[in-house]
Specification:
Layout (H helix, E strand, L loop, with lengths): L19 E6 L12 H4 L3 H7 L6 E4 L17 H10 L6 H11 L6 H7 L7 E7 L8 H13 L4 E8 L9 H19 L2 E9 L12 H11 L6 E3 L2 H11 L11 E3 L15 E4 L8 H8 L15 E6 L11 E3 L8 H7 L4 E6 H4 L1 H5 L13 E6 L15 H14 L4 E6 L1 H6 L4 H25 L2 E6 L36 E6 L7 E3 L11 H8 L13 E3 L3 H23 L7
Parallel strand pairs: 1-13, 1-14, 3-4, 3-8, 4-5, 6-7, 8-9, 9-10, 11-12, 11-13
Antiparallel strand pairs: 2-15, 5-7, 14-15, 16-17
Helix pairs in contact: 6-7, 7-9, 14-16
The structure holds 3-phosphoglyceric acid and manganese (II) ion (MN) (2 copies).
C-alpha cells in the first residue's frame, strides 16, 4: 500500500489536538459481583467512578470467541488475540482456527513447512515441543494429536514429544489427564503406523521454556538442557511417574511450575535428545512464549545462554511467530496477515506515540498491538518503554508488580508534551490472577486501580482524553463455576476449584477526561461491539476518521464542537437580547 493511502481524513465532528491515554487493564472482566470476584472485593475507586451513573461513557465490549477471531463462542479471550484486535481494528482469524483448518483440509501436511521437516524423516527423529492442554490459548491437545498422527502417516519413523504442563489456561492438576491422553495417542499411532513414538521430556510452562519477551532466559535454558541435551535434575521412566513423584516430593509444586525432567530408558539414557539431522516442530500457535526457543533453535549467532551443543536440525514453527524477524523461517501454517494496524496509521499521520508496560506485558502493547511485529514503525514518532519485571518469583509474592512505575513513566510522558497518545498495559489482574491466589489478586487489582488514577490525573492536567479498557477477563472470577447455575463447583474433597485461567466475560470500556468533547458518547446501536471496535474509537478521539474497513467506532458525536461553541454563543446572545428587551419593555426582536 502506498504511504499516502495511510492518510486519514479529519473527523467531521471531533477536533484534533487533545492528548489521549489508552489504558489496558490486563485480565479485567466484568462478572457477577460476589466474593470470588477479586476486582469487586478490591478497593477500586477510580474504576468504580468511571462506571457509576455514566451510561454514555462506560459500557461493556466482547473480548472472547469469534469477536476476537477465535473459533468458538466458548473460547476465552487472551492477550494475543485481544491486543491484536485492539491494535488492528479488525477481526482476523487467529492461529487456533487457522491450524484447525490446515489440519482438517490436510494442507498442513502438504505445505512448504512440513516438506522442510519431512526431509529429516528418513534418518532422523521428529521432535514436537509445546504446551500440553486444551486451553486453546497457545496450543490445543486435539491439534497435537492430529499432528502426531499425520506426521507418522507422512513418514515420521521416530517421534519424541517434549511437553510443558499447563495449569494456567486450564485447571491446576489437569496435566495428568493430558499426559494420559497423549500417551494413548502415541500408543495408537505406534500400533497403527509402526513409528516409534515416545514422550522424551517435560516440565511446567512457567519454569521450563515458555518465558516471553526475554524476561528470564534461564527458563528457556532449563528447557534446552532437557529437550536438546537430554539433561535434567530429574529422570523418570515415564511422564506419569514424573508428575506423580515430583508432586509427592513437593506437594507445593503445581502444573505451571513442574521442574524439568527427562524420560530415560532402562539404562538410564535419555530417550530423545535432539541431535544433528533431526526435525523439530514447536507446536504452539501463539507466538510470545515460543519466540525465545525459536531463536535458540534457529540462530547461529546466539549469546543468550550457553547452548553447549547447537544441533543441525530442520526446524518449523506451527506458525511463523514474528513476521518482522521472519522467525522461524519455516512454519506449518501461515499466520494471520495483520496489516495496516492503527499504530502504523498513527505514524503516517504524524501522531507521536508512547507505549509502555513491564517486561511480561511489554510485547502486548508493542508486538501484539502492531500485529505480531517486533520493532517500531517510526523511531522519530514512537517511544516504547519497557520497565523490567521481577524475575524468579511468582507474582502473588509481589502483586503490586510494576504498575505504579508504569503509571509514573506514563504520567511523565503525558506531562512532557512530547506525545499525542500514550498506551499502556497494567498487568496485575492477569498475572496475579493466574497464580490463583485470591488475596494477592485483590491487592494487584487495587494497585492497578491506583495506577489508572495516576494516569487519569495527568490527563486531567493537560486537558486530555482517556480510554480505559481490558484485553480479556481473569481476576473477576477466581473459581470454577457450574455454567448453568454460576455456582462454584467443588472438587471431590469438597474444596473450591481455583480458576487460574482467563474467562469469557466481557470487559469494560470507559472514556472521559476534560478534553472529551461534550458532544461525544458511546453509540447505543452496537450492542455486540468488541475489542476490534476500539481502534476506530481511538482514532476518532484523536480527531481522525477511521479507515473504512475497520470495525466501527464505539463513539458518536451528534454535532461538531464548532457547532456546539456557536450554539453556546447564540444562546448567550439570545439571552442578553431578551434581558435587554425586558429591561426596556420591548418585545424581543430575534
Ligand atoms: O501466556 C500466558 O500467560 C497465558 O497462557 C495467557 O495469558 P495472557 O494471554 O494474558 O498472556
Ligand atoms: Mn492479557
Ligand atoms: Mn493471562
Amino acid at each position: 500500500m502506498a504511504a499516502d493511502s495511510f492518510a486519514l481524513p479529519p473527523h467531521p465532528k471531533i477536533a484534533k489536538g487533545k492528548k489521549l491515554a489508552v489504558i489496558i487493564l490486563d485480565g479485567w472482566g466484568e462478572q457477577v459481583d460476589d466474593q470470588y470476584n477479586a476486582i469487586h472485593v478490591a478497593d477500586t475507586p477510580t474504576m468504580d467512578s468511571l462506571k457509576k451513573g455514566r451510561p454514555d461513557t462506560w459500557r461493556l465490549v466482547k473480548a472472547h470467541g469469534p469477536a476476537v477471531g477465535l473459533p468458538k463462542e466458548d473460547d476465552m479471550g487472551n492477550s494475543e488475540v485481544g491486543h491484536n484486535a485492539l491494535g488492528a481494528g479488525r477481526i482476523f482469524e487467529q492461529g487456533a482456527g487457522l491450524v484447525d483448518t490446515a489440519l482438517q483440509t490436510g494442507k498442513l501436511f502438504q505445505g512448504e513447512g512440513f516438506k522442510h521437516i519431512q526431509g529429516a524423516f528418513p534418518e532422523g527423529t521428529l521432535h514436537l515441543i509445546g504446551l500440553l492442554s486444551d486451553g486453546g490459548v497457545h496450543s490445543r491437545l486435539d491439534q497435537i494429536q492430529a499432528l502426531i498422527k499425520g506426521s507418522a502417516e507422512n513418514g515420521a519413523k521416530r517421534i519424541r514429544v517434549h511437553f510443558l504442563t499447563d495449569g494456567r489456561d486450564v485447571l491446576d492438576g489437569s496435566s495428568l489427564y493430558f499426559v494420559d491422553e497423549l500417551e494413548k495417542t502415541l500408543k495408537e499411532v505406534q500400533e497403527a503406523t509402526g513409528s516409534d513414538c515416545k514422550i522424551a521430556s517435560g516440565g511446567g510452562r512457567m519454569e521450563v521454556t515458555m518465558d516471553r519477551y526475554e524476561n528470564d532466559w534461564n527458563v528457556v535454558k532449563r528447557g534446552w538442557d532437557a529437550q536438546v541435551l537430554g539433561e535434567a535434575p530429574h529422570k523418570f521412566k515415564s511422564a506419569t511417574e514424573a508428575l506423580k513423584k515430583l508432586k509427592e516430593a513437593d506437594p507445593k509444586v503445581n502444573d505451571q511450575y513442574y521442574p524439568p525432567f527427562v524420560i530415560v530408558d532402562d539404562e538410564g539414557k535419555a530417550v530423545g535428545p535432539i541431535v544433528d539431522g533431526d526435525a523439530v516442530v514447536t507446536f504452539n500457535f501463539r507466538a510470545d512464549r515460543m519466540v525465545m526457543l525459536a531463536k535458540a533453535l534457529e540462530y547461529e549467532d546466539f549469546k543468550s545462554f550457553d547452548r553447549v551443543r547447537w544441533p543441525k536440525i530442520r526446524y518449523a514453527g506451527m506458525l511463523q511467530y514474528d513476521g518482522e524477524l521472519k522467525l522461524p523461517a519455516h512454519y506449518l501454517v501461515s499466520p494471520p496477515e495483520i496489516d495496516r494496524t492503527s499504530g502504523e496509521y498513527l505514524v503516517h499521520n504524524g501522531i507521536r506515540t508512547f507505549a509502555c508496560s513491564e517486561t511480561v506485558k511489554f510485547g502486548h502493547v508493542t508486538f501484539f498491538w502492531n500485529g505480531n511485529r517486533s520493532g517500531q514503525f517510526s523511531q522519530e514518532l514512537e517511544e516504547y518503554v519497557e520497565i523490567p519485571s521481577d524475575t524468579g518469583i511468582t507474582f502473588n509474592v509481589q502483586p503490586e508488580m510494576k504498575a505504579i512505575l508504569i503509571a509514573e513513566r506514563t504520567r511523565d510522558a503525558i506531562l512532557s508534551g512530547k506525545f499525542d497518545v500514550v498506551r499502556v498495559n497494567l498487568p496485575n489482574g492477569d498475572m496475579v490472577g493466574h497464580t490463583g491466589d485470591f488475596h494477592a489478586t485483590v491487592v494487584g487489582c487495587a494497585t492497578a486501580d491506583k495506577a489508572v488514577k495516576i494516569i487519569l490525573d495527568a490527563i486531567e492536567q493537560v486537558g486530555g482524553i482517556f480510554l480505559v479498557t481490558a484485553d480479556h477477563g481473569n481476576a473477576e472470577d477466581m473459581v470454577k463455576r457450574n455454567p448453568k447455575t454460576a455456582q462454584p463447583v467443588l472438587d471431590k474433597n469438597g474444596q473450591l476449584q481455583i480458576l487460574t485461567s482467563h474467562t469469557c466475560a466481557p470487559v469494560p470500556i470507559a472514556i472521559g477526561g476534560p478534553g472529551l468533547p461534550q458532544n461525544v458518547r458511546f453509540r447505543k446501536d452496537l450492542p455486540n461491539g468488541g475489542l476490534a471496535n476500539v481502534a476506530a474509537t481511538t482514532l476518532n478521539l484523536l480527531g481522525f476518521e477511521a479507515p473504512a474497513d475497520y470495525e466501527p467506532s464505539l463513539v458518536e458525536a451528534d454535532f461538531n464542537e464548532g457547532e456546539f461553541r456557536n450554539l453556546v454563543v447564540d444562546l448567550a446572545i439570545m439571552f442578553s437580547h431578551a434581558s435587554y428587551s425586558l429591561l426596556f419593555s420591548k418585545a424581543p426582536s430575534f
